[in-house]
From TrEMBL:
Annotated protein name in UniProt: RING-type E3 ubiquitin transferase
One of the GO biological process terms: protein ubiquitination
Keywords noted in UniProt: Repeat, Transferase, Ubl conjugation pathway
Stored Gene3D superfamilies: Leucine-rich Repeat Variant, Zinc/RING finger domain, C3HC4 (zinc finger)
Pathway, per record: Protein modification; protein ubiquitination
Uppermost EC category: transferase
Domain U-box residue range list: 72-146
Domain of life of the organism encoding this protein: Eukaryota
Keyword Transferase: yes
Organism: Buddleja alternifolia
InterPro entries associated with the record: ARM-like, ARM-type_fold, RING-Ubox_PUB, Ubox_domain, Znf_RING/FYVE/PHD
Xref: Pfam families: U-box (PF04564)
Length: 457
């Protein structure tokens, strides 16, 4: 009786084959029906055929192996990760052997330990295990199993040497005509969106990102940038930055952040939104937060937030919030007018949840407190507490008011009047979240002590 895992793999292979065939049918129709020759469709069809061939080979090997009685394959010939016969055994730093595509997938996912021993790998170089490979070849010959003559280096999406060559050819087009650049940029955008392993290819070559962005770095200001090309390249950068192993590489490539800042200022709204999203994704690393902040990115982000285009608001707010986690960027944001911009949007009812979180973060900065005082933040925050049903928003509002209360005595009168008329603070002290209760109680204590001191005096 076949193992359930084998049955499930066969089902998965069949589903993938059906999907590839459907895609191939669409491409063939596109090629046949169009008057002109669609080179992109032809290239894609060739890729589909190669993928179908690879699936067929894998299925054939699996069927032959399963025809043997269970346990016939020696354990030392099986990959500890796939539990299948190894086709390209390699040795990692701990001395353990794995099948190359499976250990590569493990490493490209960000793991830096040996799956079998859990030891931290001193390096990620993979050394071919010629002895085991020869023994596997002899065993296969004795059992009538024919493995492919050449083992292709497959990633989780099935990237082959042909894919690598295609990747390099697309980058090469970035130094050709505008038409070539636009065609290649659009394909790179789609491939980095759909295929995580294609994103990883950019980490394999130190020149890949500079080549990708060369049309933008060479453009003279008086000539301007082609909007569609800029959008595709910036979006490709966003796709690349999603891959954890790329974050440091992308941000530290000298031309990247200046290009993203130019896109924030002058691109289409889609380009500007995606540039903000790229900065947000890159800022997951603290070192990148500092780098992006020093570059002056906070001002164009705030300008875009101030414009208030619905398509960009979420990405811009996320970028500003993440960048402001470090103190230096809070200072920069406040200096560049963040409090005014954020309060204006909150008053307009735009993305209140996200912007209140940013304002709460900025409230640890003394100048931010001063700006809030001048811009009427106290009445705005009390209004939100009374009107919203969101516990998180109430908590952020009272946390900001707590900081204002302890930093700006001129606002005590306004707070006492609010409490006297609506009992806003005491209600939150009784019914808020645990943090909101603490902050509200702290404000009441402070205001009561101030009143007592006044009467005593």
């Amino acid at each position: 009786m076949a193992k359930s895992g084998v049955f499930e793999r066969d089902q998965t292979t069949s589903v993938k084959a059906m999907e590839l065939k459907k895609e191939l049918q669409k491409l063939v129709r596109a090629i046949v029906d169009e008057d002109d020759i669609n080179l992109e469709a032809i290239d894609r069809a060739q890729q589909m055929l190669c993928s179908l061939k690879e699936l067929k080979l894998k299925k054939s090997i699996s069927l032959k192996l399963n025809s043997h009685r269970y346990g016939a394959v020696p354990e030392e010939f099986k990959c500890p990760l796939s539990k299948e016969l190894m086709r390209d055994p390699v040795i990692v730093a701990t001395g353990q052997t794995y099948d190359r595509p499976f250990i590569q997938k493990w490493l490209k996912s960000g793991n830096r330990t040996c799956p079998r021993t859990q030891q931290v790998l001193s390096h990620t170089l993979l050394t071919p295990n010629h002895l085991i490979r020869e023994m596997i070849a002899q065993w296969c010959k004795s059992n009538g199993i024919k493995l492919p003559d050449s083992v292709q280096d497959l990633s989780e999406e099935g990237l082959t040497e042909a894919d690598w060559d295609h990747f390099l050819s697309l980058l090469g087009k970035m130094s050709l005509t505008l038409s070539d650049q636009k065609e290649a940029a659009k394909e790179l955008r789609l491939m980095t969106k759909r295929m995580p392993s294609f994103r990883a290819l950019f980490g394999e070559s130190v020149d890949a990102i500079p080549q990708l962005l060369s049309p933008l770095s060479r453009t003279k200001p008086e000539n301007g940038v082609h909007p569609g090309l800029q959008e595709d390249l910036v979006t490709t950068l966003l796709n690349l930055s999603i891959h954890d192993n790329n974050k440091k590489l992308v941000a530290e490539t000298p031309m990247v952040i200046p290009i993203l800042m130019d896109a924030l200022r002058s691109g289409t709204i889609e380009t500007r939104s995606n540039a903000a999203a790229a900065l947000f994704t890159l800022s997951a690393l603290d070192s990148n937060k500092a780098l992006i902040g020093k570059s002056g990115a906070m001002k164009p982000l705030l300008d875009l937030l101030d414009e208030g285009h619905p398509l960009a608001m979420k990405d811009v707010a996320s970028a500003i919030f993440t960048l402001c986690i470090i103190h230096e960027n809070k200072v920069r944001a406040v200096r560049d007018g963040a409090v005014r911009v954020i309060l204006n949007k909150i008053t307009s009812g735009v993305h209140v949840d996200e912007l209140l979180s940013i304002l709460a973060m900025l409230s640890t900065n003394q100048r931010a407190i001063e700006d809030m005082g001048e811009l009427g933040a106290v009445s705005c925050l009390f209004s939100i507490i009374k009107e919203t049903s969101c516990a998180r928003n109430k908590e952020n509002c009272i946390a900001i008011l707590y900081t204002i209360c302890f930093s700006d005595r001129s606002k005590w009168k306004e707070m006492r009047e609010e409490e006297s008329m609506h009992h806003t603070i005491s209600q939150l002290a009784q019914n808020g979240t645990s943090r909101a209760k603490r902050k509200a109680s702290g404000i009441l204590d402070r205001l009561n002590r101030a009143v007592n001191l006044t009467h005593t005096a």
